[in-house]
Design brief:
The chain is α+β, with helices and mostly antiparallel strands and 192 residues long. The chain contains five helices and three strands. Helices cover 65% and strands 15% of the residues. Helix 2 crosses helix 3 and helix 4 packs antiparallel against helix 5. The longest helix has 73 residues.
Length: 192
């Protein structure tokens, strides 16, 4: 791989001006063996060069293409050294990823806690509903028994009325009417 950068410097009377023109990358295609030339602006070249070389930009700047005056950076003070190592090993991105994982974990833990509490509440409602169903079934059975007894009593009273003499019939009819008034909830107290 060959990288060429073109630059232009113009010297005027008092100032010098610098202008970056463009850059080219020449590579050899592994499959066909042809030379391939790609033209880039300098900013695009700075972005694409680490990709072609397979290393990160901080490694290129601080290790491979380090200027002679900057080559003693490993001997500098702690804060600057830490910053360079963080750039090289991309530890800030790793730290951000760890923080994101921690916050997501806390979020999911609180969500799981809320859902577990809701599940316990729903289980208690389910248990109560089962108890109410059992009570309802017992009440239905009791009501059916009471209705069958009531029907048998009405039938027996009808048989007795038919077979008894006339004097007892009036008494039984009055008694039967008072029972039917009890069933309907009417007031059966004697009126004065």
């Amino acid at each position: 791989m060959v990288v060429v950068r073109s630059m232009e410097v113009a010297q005027k009377k008092t100032t010098a001006s610098f202008k970056a023109l463009d850059g080219t990358i020449r590579t050899v295609n592994r499959d066909t063996g042809e030379r391939v030339t790609l033209s880039h602006k300098c900013t695009e070249l700075d972005k694409s060069l680490p990709i072609y070389l397979g290393v990160s930009k901080p490694i290129l700047e601080h290790v491979m293409f380090c200027h002679q005056e900057e080559s003693s950076w490993p001997l500098r003070e702690g804060a600057e050294l830490k910053k360079r190592f963080d750039d090289i090993f991309d530890s800030t991105r790793f730290a951000k990823a760890l923080d994101a994982i921690k916050t997501e974990r806390k979020t999911y833990a609180s969500l799981a806690k809320d859902l577990k509490a809701e599940l316990e509440g729903l289980n208690s409602h389910k248990f109560a509903a089962c108890g109410f169903r059992e009570e309802l079934e017992e009440c239905k059975v009791t009501t059916a028994c009471i209705n069958s007894i009531r029907f048998a009593l009405h039938r027996a009273s009808f048989i007795i009325v038919v077979t008894l003499p006339h004097q007892y019939c009036n008494t039984l009819i009055a008694h039967s009417l008072s029972l039917s008034q009890l069933d309907t909830g009417q007031d059966i107290r004697p009126r004065r």
